[in-house]
Queue: 2 jobs
Job 1
Amino acid sequence: MAFMKMTSPHATRAGDTGDVMKQVILACVPGLIALSYFFGPGSLINVILASATAIACEAGVLKLRNRPIDFFLKDYSAVVTGVLLGLALPPYCPWWVVVVGTACAIILAKHLYGGMGYNPFNPAMVGYVILLISFPVEMTQWAVPRTMLAEGQDLLGPLSALQQIFLGGAIDAYTGATPLDVFKHNDSQLVQHLYASEPIFSTARWAGAGWEWVNLGFLLGGAYLLYRKIFTWHTPVSMLVTLFLLSVVFYDGGSSHSGGSPLLHLLSGATMLGAFFIATDPVSSAVSTKGRLFYGAGIGILVYVIRVWGNYPDAVAFAVLLMNFAAPFIDYYTLPRTYGHDKARRATEKED
Amino acid sequence: MRKIWSIPGGIHPEENKSQSLQLPLGEVALPSELIFPLSQHIGAPAKPIVTVGERVLAGQKIADAKGMISAAVHASTSGTVTAIEDRTLPHPSGLSGPCIVLAADGKDEFAAFEACEDYLSLDKAVLVQKIREAGIAGMGGAGFPTAVKLSPRANQPIDTLIINGTECEPYITADDILMQTQAEDIIKGTLLLAHILSQPGRIVIGIEDNKPLAIAAITQAAEGTPVEVVSFPTKYPSGGEKQLIQILTGKEVPSGALPSSIGIVLQNVGTTVAAYEAVRFGKPLIERITTVVGEALATQRNIRVRLGTPIHHVLAEHGFAEKKAMRLIVGGPMMGYALEQDDVPVVKTTNCILAPTKKEMPPPRPTQACIRCGMCAEACPASLLPQQMYWYAAAEEYDRLEAQNIMDCIECGACSYVCPSNIPLVQYYRAAKGTMRQMAIDKEKSDRSRKRFEFRQERIAKAEAEKEAKRLARKKAAELAKQKQEADKAAGVQPSGHTAKADIVATAMASAKAKQATPEEQKAKLERAVTSAEGRLEKLQQRHSDADGDMKERLAAQIKQAELKLQEAKDKLAHFTPVPTAITTVAADAPAATADPNDPVAVAIARAQAKMTMAPDEKLQANIVSLTGRLAKAEEKLAAAKAENSDKVDALQTGVDKLKEKIASAEQELAELTPSAPTATPAPEQDAAAAAIERAKAKAAAQANLSPEDKLRDQLTSINGRLEKARIKLEQAQAENTDTVAALQLGLDKMLAKQDKLRDELRALNPNAPELTDQPATAAEVAPQPAPTVDAATAAIEKAKAKADALASMSPEDKLRDQIASLETRLDKAKQRLAKAEAEDDPNLDAFKAGVEKTEAKLQQTKQQLVTSNS
Ligand code: SF4
Ligand code: SF4
């Protein structure tokens, strides 16, 4: 009789790319919970809206490209993009901001480059940067954390949140500067005084009310992904260590020109989200472990430089995109040393 | 316990080893038909030594190893050979190949085995021979002939012997059972192998820690012996040859090399036992332990099975539910190959027959896009970047793949195993590697043929130029002789009374004069050379002033060279004296002359002239020079032979001694002739010329002195020598599995054909000649004289003669046509060359132009002749 012809290996590990992506989505939950707790349901609505848009765009483009729609939807990569963008956007930003950003991410940054696995840039971050440049006002209004609400004021409920998002309105009472904003605009007070006078710091434990917990939430999720071996430690650790070292070097004893304390840099803004969920996006990062060390360090440096000396209060999106540019270059020079070879080779090396 | 190193990557697939370990080692009934593929190992297929219809006994050799890298095949039960034909092979390709088919008679009668109690006192070579005779090849999977691994090269001392009991593939437990049941034999086998390898400093058996029973058994058996038993954490693919070496020694086998290059020999436990049984009991490799496992079987266990047993027979004995199975795998799930047919036999390398159900090993899931997650790179034990290799393999960018070291991929499948996108990575690598190998072979072939073509062009051009020069000289000589004769006549000298020989001498003298009359030409040539060198220098200087950076430096170097050349040419011109030139001309003519059968007179002239132009002491000096040259060469060869520890050393030594003697005696003679002359130091200018003359003379003399039989013998010896070398090369190539195998084989075949032809010729002359026996060893006894040269010369003569014969049998008209045709081709070629020379600004441009013009003239002339002869 004839049997099926197949080549080795005949056994494979259970699970597929969709499972990997589901793990990533699952790992976002602690961060999302922290966001919702401190800033209200805005982020959750963002995430849902962005995910829905992402799925719709993905399906539409797949149809246009004549690709099997449910096969590709099942890899959950579009959902991951949507979730990450939703987490990064300010809560209660208008719905069209979310939709435009997500559509840009899926259509421009992903499918115009060939779709899954071929995009040189992180789609969520492309969407984010497009929004940041196009709609700076909407993108810089971040909600105030619950610790800073005035007496008698409450976090927005789901209904008023929806109203806010879809109908617009004056939510000025609910928006405020982020810790990084505050730090950026300070040039006269000592860090110590700043921490005492600004409510966003005075009501917090280490690095800004709410933000510190959000970051810890993402750190927890990242740790889970590391434990599940979804990615290796190289990129996040290298990024965080670089950021830490730079902030130590430029802390400047807490003067009015201080770059900010290490804790501020590690636990505010999008640091942890960036380190574990954005920088580790495998498609657009460097491939070898050595390469990922350089890649992560590069992101760390850029984040610090842009935060402290640049025009934007936070910089994870820019830093990641810039390092996406550098990834192929890093790959060329960081081939691992193969078994039986004295030295690592360079991918640019050609046989004659 | 010794340090254990870890390997990068690796995976932990489900072990699935317990299924086959529930039952003790079993046996299966003898099948009615057995199939023995002639190629169950790496290397040349075995050569059948039985005929169809012959009855054979169990253990009887039915096919002999062919060449060094090959293994014999033995019948595994008694019966009758029913066919020697192509059958489907147990091979990933699913192709067919020659097999010996045996109908078992059920009696299972064994041939007598030659046991040996005291095997450790036997010579190592004898032991290796016994292992080779027993047809033992690596039983772990690859099937490399064991005897070859046990005879490492002399310059690669082995310091570590590793016995591989790792068995890291899931499902397979054949080695585990073997270690549990035959631990004593394994240790004895290990000690035997260590003995053969001259007791390496470290003897170690490596076992993964998931086989506690095996470890206990082996440890107990190894007590009191120098054998170390090392267990290490289970991880796939620790049992890969390269990986195990890394785990146990921390060393890495250099890319493209064999473990023996770092002093390591590695053998599988099964192979070790087989070697022991072969030496101790004289038992050839006719059975092995195989794991029969998979949910599609009613019984899962290990069996001792006769080689040649068809797999369907084994499956039937184990309650195979065909419906449940979707695939049938030989080997493990990671590196085994799927069978399309179950009528292939169990062979020396079959360590597992795996019949999983659909549920156990579901069909591969659809492939998704690579998300570059890097899990594959994490798992790769060779530290490759599978995702990049996949990318380049899909894009067929082979030089990028090369830079990614794809050739170091061991095809372990770890990357495919972990890939969440279910990409069949290994399949891509296999295909790419195959293409790359083929490309390398093709490239080498085309390179070689291009080189051959260029070389041939050059040779033809040279030969033609020489012929042309000679023809001119001859014409002049004839004219001169005529003039002289007339002058003599006029002077009243009687030409009669001279013998024919004297006539020749006269002609020779005339030609000598003719040659000496050519200095004008030589001078003109030198002048031309100076002019062209000057031209080149100027051009270069111009370019130099235009260029910058790197280019400038390079040009500067070129200019310096051109200056030197110019200086040289000028010097030559300044020191131009007719005499040495004459000698040079003669020297150039002499070897060519021997090859020109159209004109035996010219040969004689050349030779006579060469003799005439030399005083006895000059001759001796030349002799000494040539002898010193030969001595230097011989000494070089000797040194090389010593370095390789070849068996030719003695013969070469004698040769060198003889040459030394000759030189001494020649020097003495010279001293006697010219006591004042400094020994063996002729003027440097004459040196080369003299040597050339000497060489030509020696060749001519050698040919003249040799009887045809001797000539043939010489040729035969030389070809034997070459043949032997070629064989060695081929075997090396095969052993290292290089791409040149095919080419080498071709060369070897050609040489064999030539050898046969020579033998036939020799037989015609002397049927009792000793060279007729098949003894390539004679090559070693030949003194290191330049045999190949004689060979080449005779070949040339032969060819020329053939041509002359052909010409003789042609009508004059045909001859002319022939000439025209050949001239036309020559002209074409010459024109091409000229064009190239012009393009490259060649310094010999003038010479090329002259050649084309001449050929044109000749062509015109010949055509004219043809017209006249037609009319
Ligand atoms: S494991 Fe598969 S999906 Fe991941 S990088 Fe490797 S090839 Fe791509
Ligand atoms: S098959 Fe090749 S590339 Fe894949 S893990 Fe094994 S050695 Fe590495």
Job 2
Amino acid sequence: MASELDLSRDRLDAPFARRVEELSGENPYACYQCGKCSAGCPFADYMDALPNQVLRLVQLGDASALELSAPWVCASCLACGVRCPKGVDIATTMEALRILALRRGISPAPVTPDRPCPQIALVGAYRKLTP
Amino acid sequence: MKTIAYFPGCAMKDQARPDEAGTLHALALLGYEVTEIPRWNCCGTVYSLAQDDLMRHVGPVRNLVRVQGMGEGRVLTLCAMCYGTLARSARFVAEPERLARINAFLDTEDDFRGGIEVVHLLTLLRDEVGYEKLAAQVKRTLDGLKVGTYYGCVLLRPRLFAVDDPDRPEVMERVVEALGGTPVAFPERTECCGAYLTVGRTDIVGDRVGRILRSARGGGAEVVVTTCPLCQFNLDERRPAGAPTLPVLYLGQLLAWAMGLDEPAVAALVSKEPATGRPVSTGV
Ligand code: SF4
Ligand code: SF4
């Protein structure tokens, strides 16, 4: 029996991964799942999937990544990006997932501002949480 | 006298007024004529990380067009977040196709030609003023006050726009030294406070702030200093019960103190003056 191992990206359900790649400008397949991003993420404890797991879903072309709360918990602190041994800037992937979710009408949980709240925070939040 | 164009941003005219007042007085003493750019608008506070989101660069670029209109080649920011959006947008739209599209958006404005340098206060103090000249202007030393230097995110990440080494920054520590203080480079000084998550996720921000303040106090800090109005707000206002109560100040407030200023806008700082003659109570 002939056996052949096809390792190409085309085997995967790649349209979703390609879309995320386009939006983020980062190649998700550069990630080799070492977990360093998640180890250093100050917000990982509050996420329903660790940053490297979010990236794994993207690699697998799994659009259920859009249903996660993790991208909404990510504060774009960029700690992951400066530390990734493969130079993957995961924060841009998180941003791509937020934007795709918003464009597809999958909204984050509604936000009620806690008072007091300075305008610098309100502007930041509406730029991140609205399409 | 050197001239420099200045982009204040929203916070400097609101909750960060003591920062602006102190810094601008210090810059005057250091020989700068600082001119606010005309008709500036909000920078957007957070930089868009998406490739196709050109609309979110209009705000920062409009401000850069105003700088260009003043005939200046660079613009100063005091706020870390303004620095991030302006510096990163300036580079993002420098690519010819994006530049053409953004200029089409701006329409009624002069075309942005690119090439405006965005300078943060810390870089200016280090690279142009120099720590020695800064020290020479000190009228009232910090007298060894232990100052925790909190950088947060935007000054150090991404690497391309970092004002210093993202892993081992020292510019703020050297400024504190020049003012006569003892810098405390505590481990959490480069970790995020939670930023805009403060709108609705005070639970997360509170946890982060508690950790940052404990780290600062663990290093012996009597006060924490920052250049980001959002960090200052979070560290001060979202402090959880039981967290260290040490004061969280703007860098401009330390500059104001050291340069002998008693302006009303820095009164909040001066009023905390304890009998020892130090600028703040240790409060711990
Ligand atoms: S640190 Fe980089 S390579 Fe490692 S899991 Fe995270 S993204 Fe992948
Ligand atoms: S940018 Fe997001 S994912 Fe990366 S370390 Fe910061 S919070 Fe975590």
